[in-house]
Amino acid sequence: MDPSGLPDFHGLPDSPVPSGAHDSPSLSALDRRIAGCRACPRLVDWREEVARTKRAAFADWTYWGRPVPGFGPPDARLLIIGLAPAAHGGNRTGRMFTGDRSGDVLYEALYDVGLASQPTSTHSGDGLELHGVRITSPVHCAPPANKPTPAERDTCRPWLIQELRLLRPTVRAALVLGAFGWQAALPAFAEAGWTVPRPRPAFAHGTRVTLPATDGGDDLHLFGCFHVSQRNTFTGKLTPAMLREVLRTAAEAAGAPTRK
């Protein structure tokens, strides 16, 4: 039996490039457009090759093999920004940080602080719900060696800008996992309506920066956290306690519900 439980996007259209000029009317519409993007030939070839050849442990799965949209409620107060989907994680399941060890660490921590309904995420139909938090990334396709190019990062940025604009009525804080995501997200915050200080704030675990709104709206509280990569979690550079602490701090700044 195929355990995939892939996202249900009936009649999903392919689009050759991401659009920075025509905003999507809703997050659900944006998610559909992201999932149909074919703007970066190297990433398209890689994600589809991985979906064809698979990994032996997942031979009975139907891989998603498309760009992975964000995951979480449209009225989220906290946004978590990673790097890109994993080849046999999000590229397989169709959900951010699902089905790999980085996701195992992240979702367990989200559950521990009260931001997720369960501590594990295995596929898109597993019943997981996020509370007051949405998860996305600056690059939506799985890249070879987990390393998008600067051009691929920049090509994908309009999707993040649109996502931030759609979340502006409710989002009050953003937690960025890793230096790549931090550098990729700062220009998107500026385009979406917040002022990024100059010189740009440097990434560090535990960094907190307030980004004033350019239109008199609500400020955004920006937090940095080491990425939940296996290298960081296996070596103890990022421990579960460190992750829970920064998640709880960011959620409290956002006004998202947490478990004490």
TrEMBL record:
What domain of life does the UniProt record list for this protein's source?
A: Bacteria
Domain Uracil-DNA glycosylase-like: start-end pairs: 69-247
Q: Which UniProt keywords apply?
A: 4Fe-4S, DNA damage, DNA repair, Hydrolase, Iron, Iron-sulfur, Metal-binding
This chain belongs to the protein called Type-5 uracil-DNA glycosylase
Q: Where is this region: Disordered?
A: 1-26
Alphabetical list of InterPro entries matching this protein = UDG_Type-4/5 (IPR051536), UdgB-like (IPR044147), Uracil-DNA_glycosylase-like (IPR005122), Uracil-DNA_glycosylase-like_sf (IPR036895)
Family indicated by similarity = Belongs to the uracil-DNA glycosylase (UDG) superfamily. Type 5 (UDGb) family.
